[in-house]
Amino acid sequence: MRRPSGFFCMLSILFLMTACTKQTYPIITTSPQLEMTATAIVEVPTSTITPEATAMPPGVELPLPLYFLSDGEIWLLSPGEHSPRQLAIEGEASSMDVWPGDNRIAYGTTNGKVYTLMPGQEPVLLHNVQTETDAPVRIRDVSWSFGGTKLAYTVAYTSEQMIFEAGYPSYPSGLWVFDMQGQTTQWLLSDHYMRKDRKNVGYLRVIVESRWSPDDTALLLRLGYWEWTNCAIFEPLDQQLDETNLYPFDVSDWGSGFWTRDGQATVIISGQNYGVVSDLMYVDRVTKESKLLIDGEAESLYVDDAQELPDGIVFLGTRQMVQPGEEQLYLGKLTERGFQYAPTGPTSLCNTRETGHIEWDPSGHWGVFVCQYGPSEASPEEVHVISLDGENIDLTPDLNTLPNTPTTILWGSD
Questions:
Q1: Cβ distance 185 to 209 under 8 Å?
Q2: Predicted TM-score of the model (pTM)
Q3: In angstroms, rounded to a whole number, what is the distance separating the alpha carbons of residues 211 and 56?
Q4: How many Å apart are CA 408 and CA 360, to the nearest integer?
């Protein structure tokens, strides 16, 4: 059974600051959900499907460069090459993002620094957050704006003492934005930590990651609580310690989401029943009204890793009580008859293992992901490149020079 990301709770809070609890700021009250017509599931012709993954055959090249973050190091696998090369960076990388405009890398470190890097050049330090506090900090997440003119990043404390005593607000934790044109930093939101005299885990809330709207004027945040996660829109991007510009969604137990390609809405995954089933909801950016696209309970479906591509909304789906490895990739569109989705891509993604996050290239044709093994497994994890046309290529043999399984994989541009 798959467990949602919001369950990386107590240990993550104490050590890596990647999770969980509930907060009392205003919750959006969504309007009654619009009536959803019956979902039509259309079978994909089997002639378009490749049944099993194959190792990359001789002469086959990657369509675009791939960047890997593994054990604090950044690696690049370029088309025409069959093993990645390590890039020279400063510090130990904890997060990274690649801007497709020119393959410029942004990365954060475990000691609170933010850099940019062009492959083949020296890293450029943008912000050393560690100089602004005596408490140890790390950069949890970095995110390029669509135009490449701004960089959002999140700062987390790494000491147990600060988690239990820092309170709120606590500078410099939380969300920051760096303006590349003005070379200026702005602290936007603080994490919520407990106070020394009031150790209530219900007060904890950290900003796990941020994603820019297509117009670069708003951020979709994933918020980590003690035992679940939630999503929120933050706009306008002004410093708001009273959080009046923060609009959380009232989702069930845990949630993750993404912007639609036109930036007019977000699509939210809402989990329930301990990861057995989950819903898919469309939420209007302006009105905050929601529309239920997939009722996971009614359709006995677990929805995961939904994203919008040029061809429609793609997501991983697992039927209730089906074992890991039997996940199917689905492609759906919102029509006048409701949200209709059908199987797409390869019939087999990871065989008996769970499929991790699929990172799609800008064209929406190629995806790359890690097959997640259990903690007791001795076998190395696999890395696959797939397409909506059914191709499934095992990239693992080409990555034997990496120090470990990559924690982040991103596409570059040609």
A1: no
A2: 0.85
A3: 32
A4: 13
Whole-angstrom distance, CA of residue 62 vs CA of residue 383? 13
Burial class (CB in 10 A: 0-12, 13-18, 19+), 65: buried
What are the Cα distances from residue 57, in Å, to 82, 376, 394, 395? 11, 31, 10, 10
Least confident of 191-200, 305-314, 345-354, 364-373: 345-354
Distances (CA, A) of 62 to 37, 48, 76, 295, 395: 40, 20, 12, 37, 10
DSSP 132: G
- Based on the structure, what is the number of domains in the chain? 1
Residue 166 in tokens: 């820092």
CB 245 within 8 A of CB 193: no
- Residue 387 sits at φ, ψ, to 5 deg, of -135, 160
Task: State how beta strands 312-319 and 338-344 pair.
Answer: unpaired
Tokens of residue 130, six digits = 């560690």
* pLDDT tens readout for residues 271-301: 765 567 889 999 899 988 889 999 998 998 9
Q: Would strands 254-259 and 382-387 be described as parallel, antiparallel, or unpaired?
A: unpaired
DSSP symbol at 245: T
- Other Cβ atoms closer than 10 A to 283: 22
Question: 293, 334 in Cβ contact below 8 A?
Answer: yes
Q: d(Cα 295, Cα 301) in Å, to the nearest integer? A: 8
Assigned token pair, 33: 């959900």
- Could you tell me the residue range of the domain that residue 343 belongs to? 5-411
Task: Note the pLDDT tens digit of each residue in 230-263.
Answer: 899 999 998 888 899 999 887 656 778 899 999 9
Identity of the residue numbered 367: G
Per-residue model confidence as pLDDT tens digits over 26-41? 333 333 333 333 343 3
287 exposed, middle or buried (CB, 10 Å; 0-12, 13-18, 19+)? exposed
How many C-beta atoms surround the C-beta of residue 183 within 10 A?
A: 9
Structure tokens at 258: 């993404």
Spatial separation of the C-alpha atoms in residues 204 and 162, rounded to whole Å: 12
The CATH number of whichever domain residue 299 belongs to comes to 2.120.10.30
- Among 138, 190, 171, 161, residue whose Cα is nearest residue 18: 138
Of 304, 302, 258, 307, give the one whose Cα is nearest residue 283.
Answer: 258
Distance CA 139, CA 174 (A): 10
